[in-house]
Amino acid sequence: xxxxxxxxxxxxxxxxxxxxxxxxxxxxxxxxxxxxxxxxxxxxxxxxxxxxxxxxxxxxxxxxxxxxxxxxxxxxxxxxxxxxxxxxxxxxxxxxxxxxxxxxxxxxxxxxxxxxxxxxxxxxxxxxxxxxxxxxxxxxxxxxxxxxxxxxxxxxxxxxxxxxxxxxxxxxxxxxxxxxxx
Length: 182
Description:
The protein is α+β, with helices and mostly antiparallel strands. It has five helices and six strands; from the N terminus they run E-H-E-E-H-H-H-E-H-E-E. It has a four-stranded antiparallel beta sheet, with helices on both faces. A two-stranded antiparallel ribbon has the order 5-6. The longest helix is centred in the first third of the chain and has 16 residues.
């Protein structure tokens, strides 16, 4: 398949995919309401760590990112904002994990733990291989998706762009089976 088309991946590409998604909690992390979510974190994170194409994820010594403070300006009266940020070899590698059975099990229950957000709550962007994204970069990318929709600077899984070193710069639409279960 030629560069820039769904399914294309090449190890010599100088760019990898950063992703961030945020969620506004319905209750504090230590509340009974979020107990099932907290109990699932280690399993879901281990599945991500072992997934083909996974490179890195934001985490503390506890092995997750639940205590990292970012996007605090976006709490909107919620119990707080959780941030999930990771780096992947390609859009396809990220999607394979996101829509895997392990991740979908938790994704199906997200409305039990998190507010439904009307505005963009995730962003993807290409970074040079070896660079680790910061929460400040992530905040800028989510804001850009909210302001402008998907662009080569910040995009979504549904509407994404090829890496900057690709011959193709056109937006790509995800396959029909890349759909959220809830």
